[in-house]
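Quick one: structure tokens for this chain, please?
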Amino acid sequence: MNIVNLNKHVIVVVFNGVETRFEPSGMVASVEVKQEKTCEVNGIPCSRNKYGSIVGLPESEASTLFLVNALVLERAKIEGRFDCIAPDTGPSAIREKGQVVAVVGFVS
């Protein structure tokens, strides 16, 4: 299976002691976001995000999965695309100083 990384950064997976690096492909998938101001709290503005379409997700390809962020993955499922995976940044992720440096798998 071919995996194309549509993130801006390297995704590192460590599984069974083996490290696999997924370098950025040069293409980036994202979700359009528009903000609407909803209120102010003690003079500080609050807003709501309205999520739109996915930008930068290539057409489906046989035997290819697209490695995207969690927001793109969720939007892709809504749009009927099931050829996307995201790094599993949940409790099993490998962290240094609180930051995810590697994952042990993907979510779909």
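Residues 3 and 65 are 5 Å apart (CA to CA).
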